[in-house]
């Protein structure tokens, strides 16, 4: 039996797979600037990949890379059922944090210098850190996931305004 008790070797000795595996996350979107979504050490995107990065409010196709290879948002159903509703942001841009958390837990890249509550610095990565991510923002609930019938009526709209100043 090996000395690592069945666990895979540490990241620095694990070569990237010849064709990166893809993990799909259908949730509340993504915050692509998170260090977990850097593409350091990632394989090239397969030529046969037909996905795309859909642009929208505060989200540009240039935010995709070898880690984030497909990003889309689906809100036509919400719009059809709620005429005149204002969706903020109208994109795959994450505001609540849940989709980003789920995606980084599944396939976040190695990040050094993270801390949790006690302030001690450590490292973090996702379960399958060498996998690519395909994100779908389809979690829309009036007043819950970044939506309001009144612009700037909640903190999510405020965060989007801060983002627009950042980008």
Count of runs of 4 or more consecutive helical residues: 3
Question: Quick one: biggest sheet?
Answer: 3 strands, parallel
Helix content percent band: 10-25%
Q: In terms of per-residue confidence, which ranges show pLDDT below 50 for 5 or more consecutive residues?
A: 143-167
pLDDT average, as an integer? 79
Report the β-strand fraction as a percent range.
15-25%
Shape: globular
The beta-strand count equals 7
Radius of gyration: 18 Å
Secondary-structure content class:
alpha/beta
Order of helices and strands: EEHEHEEEEH
* Through-space gap between termini: 51 Å
Explain what this protein looks like in three dimensions.
The protein has helices spanning 76-81, 98-107, 155-166, and strands spanning 22-27, 68-73, 86-87, 111-115, 121-124, 132-137, 147-148. It is α/β, with parallel strands linked by helices. The strands form 3 sheets. A 3-stranded parallel β-sheet has the order 1-6-2, covered by helices on one side. It has a two-stranded antiparallel ribbon with strand order 3-7. A hairpin with a 5-residue loop joins strand 4 and strand 5 (121-124). The chain is globular.
What's this model, at a glance?
Helix content is 17%, strand content 19%. The chain is α/β, with parallel strands linked by helices and 167 residues long.
List keywords for this structure.
167 residues, alpha/beta, three-stranded parallel sheet, two-stranded antiparallel ribbon, 3 helices, 19% strand, globular, disordered C terminus
């Amino acid at each position: 039996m090996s000395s690592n008790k069945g666990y895979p070797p540490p990241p620095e000795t694990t070569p990237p797979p010849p064709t990166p595996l893809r993990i799909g996350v259908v949730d509340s979107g993504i915050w692509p600037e998170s260090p977990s979504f850097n593409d350091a050490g990632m394989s090239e995107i397969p030529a046969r990949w037909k996905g795309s990065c859909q642009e929208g409010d505060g989200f540009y196709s240039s935010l995709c890379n070898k880690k984030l290879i497909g990003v889309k948002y689906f809100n036509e159903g919400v719009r059809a059922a709620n005429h005149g509703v204002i969706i903020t942001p109208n994109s795959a841009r994450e505001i609540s944090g849940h989709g980003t958390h789920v995606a980084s837990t599944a396939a976040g890249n190695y990040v050094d210098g993270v801390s949790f509550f006690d302030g001690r610095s450590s490292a973090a990565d996702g379960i399958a850190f060498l996998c690519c991510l395909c994100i779908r923002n389809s979690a829309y609930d009036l007043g819950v996931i970044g939506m309001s019938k009144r612009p700037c009526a909640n903190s999510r709209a405020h965060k989007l305004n801060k983002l627009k100043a950042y980008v």
